[in-house]
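Pasting two entries for a bug report.
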Amino acid sequence: MTQHINQISSARTDEYVTIIAPSLGAVMAQFRARGLGAKGYSITGQAARHQFSYAGENAAREPSQENLFGGVAMVAATFRRAGAGNRAEKS
């Protein structure tokens, strides 16, 4: 049980960056421009088109007002860097 708790607390130290752009090329250009690869980030899964909505404090708003990017689907990719504890274990 202790080992499982340690794994959970280690996972919580991981850092995530999600890049949203009109195309996969633009996402990857931003990944390179920010130097995320050199900082230890890697993609967590498939990059895909998404429609984004903001779920703010006022849930009664009209759906059209909650859509981000004018309702246009954008490519999103999430990148993860292992937390300090996880990076030390891999060394």
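Entry 2 (this is the one that rendered wrong in the viewer):
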Amino acid sequence: MPFAPESTQIVAIADWNLFNQESRLSQSSIFESSRYELSEIVYGFAKYPLKRLLHATYMRAREEFLVEGLSPEVVGHGKSAEEASEDFCLKFHSIFQQLVFKRPFEMSPEESVIWNKVKDIVDVTVYRNRTPLVVEQYGVVSHGQRSVPCQIKWDNGFTEAVDVRQVENADYVRFVPGQPVKAIVRRNPMTRELIDIPYLQKVASLPSESDLVTSGFVEQVLNAEPFPDANWD
């Protein structure tokens, strides 16, 4: 049998547990360069779907991790393929997040060149459609017709069902009616439907709108009629 394949298909170059130890050691000790195929780039919770398989090469002599279509603009450096790939992923992740929300006229000529390369290999539409929106919102808790919190009226006037199971803060179940809160909310990027609330804390009042608490805003929430789960119209 051959000693070790020169090319190894990997799903995420940041997840080196996908390699078996024997193959990884053989490549670093025998070959001046190791080649891989990428079907997806992953860094932490961020996943970047690729339009096609990409070839990546770790140059041991130069300690560089190069990816077709992105290098030399994005190059990972490290004394091992694992270290260099991690560096590449971090750099790519940083560049993508800096540019994805910029409009073309807001980019410098250098940024435009890099972004065009990124769009050529990353399916940006798929990325946007499957990446939750993360927003900061303020609101007031209501129990509705129940004995536990079940809805929040946000400061934009939208009232939404918020099940206790959707909130990571276990104390939410003890929040009293009328309690102002600050939340980090994750939403479906297509429908804006609530996914979950990873952060929810009590606040003294709604920012810059504390007068609403004394002008009937809280009372309006507490006396609200039963409502549908969501209505963005």
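Dev reply: Rendering is fixed now. As a check, the viewer should reflect this: The radius of gyration is 24 Å.
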